[in-house]
Amino acid sequence: MSEKTIALVTGANKGIGYEIAAGLGRRGWSVGVGARDEQRGESAAAKLRAAGADAFCVPLDVTDDDSVSAAVRMIEERAGRLDVLVNNAGVAGGWPEQPSTIDVETVRRLVETNVIGVIRVTNAMLALLRRSAHPRIVNQSSHVASLALQTTPGVDLGGLSGAYAPTKTYLNAITIQYAKELSTSNILINGACPGYVATDLNGFSGTQTPEQGAAIAIRLASLPDDGPTGQLFDDSGVVPW
Ligand code: NAP
To answer: Is 190 strand, coil or helix?
Structure first.
């Protein structure tokens, strides 16, 4: 079994996920570049390898059982275990988006990817994570998911979000439930808030670079054994649920 830390980042062919993979690669880790489109994944992995990273493409659509099962088999054959899972893949609806007029198909699509996709991938990868000496799971959340921030007068979270923000709130809620269930194991699981990052997700309107946005997930992926679990973080520290 390889001594190298092995990580998988979902939705790593572009945006924040790509920069998380790049950052983990710079640590000398072996990084699976999860991508629902194999060509896009292969080209991202090739770019990372050209920059010196040990990166390989993992075809992975988080909404597809067969695709996730194939990804598990691929990691198992390659490394026999998984040390770090970063559930980064995500989709956004419109912005701003009023709950009163939202298309329920949009809600369904976002829940399928941002919530059920994370559960599907996490549960499928758990057996491999349990074989690791220092397993970590990072769920890519958002400040807009925080009910505390959403209900604090004067906090600007960019307007109404009828679907996207609630899916990330759901993700936060399941992060807490996983942390409780896994509290007797060595698996640490936390949520990351990358900030407002210029990517395809928001038409590149964000004010931070993807590299800046990747920093908190990289930190949570590299937590020491006595690090926190079941919490939500940004670059400044704990974010209230
Ligand atoms: P992005 O550039 O649009 O990247 C999203 C990634 O997710 C892409 O690689 C995309 O693949 C992938 N993806 C979407 N659906 C997928 C599926 N069914 N299976 C596998 N991969 C899938 O957006 P980003 O800003 O980097 O977002 C990354 C994460 O950060 C998301 O979870 C997002 O909600 C979160 N986030 C972003 C911001 C921000 O300001 N940008 C703020 C807070 C949180 P394709 O290339 O094939 O579409």
So the answer is: strand
d(CA 50, CA 121) in angstroms, rounded, equals: 28
Average pLDDT for the chain = 97
Choosing from 36, 48, 208, 239 the residue with most ligand 1 atoms within 8 A of its CB, the one to mutate for a pocket test is 36
pLDDT digits (tens, 9 = 90+) for 110-163: 999 999 999 999 999 999 999 999 999 999 999 999 999 999 999 999 999 999
Whose tokens are 């996490």? That residue is: 122
User: Best of 91, 175, 232 to mutate for ligand 1, by most ligand atoms within 8 A of CB?
Assistant: 91
Catalytic residue among 164, 170, 178, 196: 164
Residue showing tokens 């298309």 = 103
CB of 192 shorter than 6 A to ligand 1: no
User: What would the mean pLDDT of 164-185 be, rounded to a whole number?
Assistant: 98
- Per-residue pLDDT at 47 exceeds 70: yes
SS3 217: helix
6-238 sits in which CATH class? Answer: alpha beta
The domains of the chain are located at 6-238
Identify whether 164 is a catalytic site residue: yes
